Amino acid sequence: MGRLIRHHADLAPLGTNVNFVQAAGNQALTIRTYERGVEAETLSCGSGAVAAVVIATMRGLVSARPVTVHNRAGEPLSVRPHSDRPEQTRWVGGPVTHTFEGLLA
User: What is the residue range of 74's domain?
Assistant: First the structure.
C-alpha cells in the first residue's frame, strides 16, 4: 500500500513518504514508514515520527507529553515539544548507533 500512495498521481512528480500510524494509548503511537528514495519500508523515520505526533495530537489521539513512537527498529523514539517554542518545534530522541566513518578527499 505504501508504494501505491508514494507514487500516486496527485503527489507527482516528487511523491511522498508514507506513514501508517496507530494510537497505542494517550502517550504512544505505533508507526510504519515507506520512504521515497529508499523505495521500501524502513525501520524508523524521525521526521515521520514527529509528523505523526503533531497530527495525532491535533486529532486528540494522544495528549501526554512526551509521546513514545514505536517503530519497526524495536527501539522507540520520544517526541516532545521544545521548551522555548512548544507550539512550533519538537525534539525527537532515541538510540544512536555509529554505522560508518569515512574521509572525503
Answer: 2-87
Q: CA 33 to CA 16: how far, in whole Å?
A: 11
Distance (Å) of CA 73 to CA 10, 13, 38, 83, 98: 30, 30, 16, 28, 15
The domain spanning residue 81 has which CATH number?
Answer: 3.10.310.10
Least Cα distance to 24 among 59, 65, 62 occurs for 62
Cα angle value 80/86/90 (rounded, 5°): 40
Tell me if 99 is assigned to some domain. no
- pLDDT tens digits for range 23-65: 998 899 999 999 988 998 999 999 999 999 999 999 999 987 8
Q: How far apart are CA 90 and CA 45, in angstroms?
A: 14
Here the cell at position 76 is 522507540
- For the chain, how many structural domains are there in total? 1
